[in-house]
Amino acid sequence: MLTLERTHSDNEDFIDLIKHLDAYLKVQDGEDHDFYAQYNKVDAIRWVLVAYSNGVAAGCGAIKPYNEQTIELKRMFVHPDHRSKGVAQAMLQHLEQWAAEEGFTTCVLETGVKQVEAIRLYTKAGYELMDNYGQYAGLATSVCMKKALK
């Protein structure tokens, strides 16, 4: 049974999952990891979601304001033991709903070109490619996407 818990960045399960995510990204990003890591601090994120599968922390994600109308999706991760079970899709839908409840009309995100599964998930969920924004502008290793929220 999958349950989704709204929490904050000091949640111990979130912190543990982020350690797994950072280790995974360090391998995926290679030499670029330190650059990206500086933009993935979680100490002040107030909208965090942790997914539990039968009581075990299976995945996480977060949203934070990008501007007054736009929310940014951050730190999406599903533990390898829980992949291909719909956890990421459920989390993404819930985070989008939460953002809409908070009054945001658009969601943006950045992922790496090597994150093929993530790009597939976001595309399937209706995200479209956009010009790389902010600190990701001009980076060939980044893929930025956006979606209008309902």
UniProtKB/TrEMBL annotation:
Pfam families: Acetyltransf_1. Residues 1-150 form the N-acetyltransferase domain. It comes from the Bacteria. Keywords: Transferase. Gene3D superfamilies: 3.40.630.30. The keyword Transferase applies. PANTHER family: GNAT FAMILY N-ACETYLTRANSFERASE (PTHR13947), LD18367P (PTHR13947:SF37). This is Acetyltransferase, gnat family. The lineage of its organism: Bacteria, Pseudomonadati, Bacteroidota, Cytophagia, Cytophagales.
